[in-house]
User: What shape does this take?
Amino acid sequence: MPLFLIAMGLVALAGLVALAAGRSARWATILGAGGAVVGCALGLIPALEAALGGSTQVVRLPWAMPGATFHVEIDALSGFFLLPTLLLGGLAAVYGTEYLQSFREKKNLGVAWCCFNLLVVSMAIVIVARDGLLFLVAWESMALVSFFLVAFEHEKDEVRKAGWIYLIATHIGTAFLLVMFLLLARVAGSFDFDAFSQAGAVGPAFAGLIFVLGVVGFGTKAGFVPLHVWLPEAHPAAPSHVSAVMSGVMIKTGIYGLLRTLTLLGPPPSWWGWLLVGIGVSSGVLGVLFALAQHDLKRLLAYSSIEHMGIITLGLGLGLLGVSLGIPTLAVLGFAGGLLHVLNHALFKGLLFLGAGAVLHATGTRSIDHLGGLAKRMPTTSLLFLVGATAVCGLPLLNGFVSELLIYLGAFSSIAAGRTWVVLVPALIGVAGLALIGGLAAACFTKAFGMVFLGEARSHHAEHAHEPRLAMQAPMVILAACCVVIGLFPAVVVPVSAAAIMPLVRQSDNVLVTTLEHAGKSLWMISLAAGALVLVVAALVILRRRLLARRPVEETVTWDCGYARPTPRMQYTASSYAQPLTALFALVLRTRERLVSPQGIFPTASSLATETPDIFHRGLFAPLFAGVESVLCRLRVVQPGRVQIYVLYVVVTLLSLLAWKIG
Assistant: This one.
């Protein structure tokens, strides 16, 4: 634990020194990024040790806060969540050294690096905090510094709007968490997590209330539908390396907080699992549907993160059902699949956001319809993005498939065992939901990769694109390699989650190990099949090269439908590619179309534009906050701007409190 605290202190200190460097972009970058990389690397050592089942590391010190202590601890669950947090945080810092160079003349990079480093530290403290007040302080710090990072380009109207939406949403979630911790502290007599474990003995009604408060508070950060409205606004607005950290690991603090809350409560009733399964399926399906309809590359990736938060929550819901109904296989595989997907999503979504940042850095646009043909100009980036796109779809040979397979195996085991409808229905819903999510994700990311990297350049933005430098490419290569290694050797990685899920599944070590070993046999078969496929593909590539070695290979144009001079405008657009599916789900998406039809015998201009606003933002939260604003505007009469009136308010309040106390 001392090593971890030293590492986080180094990251925070480097950020403050970078802030002191002011507008010296070179020194701010060296100090901020250098400290982040070194600190994250040091912090990974105790995190990995704890995640693999090593001894729990604890530090408990007196603190001048009422009812609280400075209590931090790295157990297996904390260590598991620290791994993606520190890994992606360090890689994003390396990436940011090059990405932020285009802002060095117009932005204070010292402020940017200070906020980035404090974001990494606050996320880490959230994960290791074992005191309610310390947790809330770290949680609020994480929200504030990420707000400043989202508002990095605050001169743009859409960025300022995204920043305020994020700040309001995160504080609404924090309000629910504050109530949750106050209720727990009232029962336990302390804000220490060790004392919170008494809350489960109070009664099922109290435990259920705490669980619901946790689902809303932590679910807002995790992006559960319909609490997700901040996420597709904030992630595209932030710098790309910050988007990778926010989407890859920051929203996972919501998942961590929910899991940590479960360890503090008693045995879960089945309705907890039902609730998480429902949230997981709805978030997964709606997230990928809205991703499919997007034209902004980073906005598409943001909605995809909502989809994968749904998959993780689905796994956790099935795990809870397994615990409440006494089905060890479902409990172990549900929690193992959900936790492993936390790690996998951090890897491939971090890779995809960094890839999108490379595209934005090279072309100056995030609009999918203005890109195209980048595979010829950015071959390395296109290959790495393809790895991430394949992994995010949950296809075999890559890591996304492994964690989703564990969830499938858990659900199928319950269905095959012929259990009661209480578990059969959510298991069937989970299987159907995962299948639908997987199919829609494949369509979504063939659109994303195809429209951006294949075909011809659709605008001058794409015509002059170029590969980024090594500082931006190296982190993407490392993340892509991790996706491939986990996909090819899943049986080696899955046991890493065993120690982390131990306090969640409430099973003996033998049951846990036996279940994972049984699942490992299926995973080894996947590795063998993957190895055989790789060998076959390699053999075919070698054979093709030999057959073509002595033959001339020429290139020609594709069939042009009879047009003498086809133009890039004749290619599929993002809207036209997704139109069959968006039309099928038109009742949910409510896509708006603006069509200018061809007119006359020789039409000169026509166009079709589509827009898919978030139905929850437009139909739920916008009217709700408009109503709140209307009510508050009517209360302006009590704020006339005269100091004497405000003093009168203070006196009346004090007298009222005094009278209440005396009475």
Summary: Residues 267-547 form one domain. Strands lie at 57-61, 70-74, 592-596, 607-611. The radius of gyration is 26 Å. The chain has a mean pLDDT of 88.
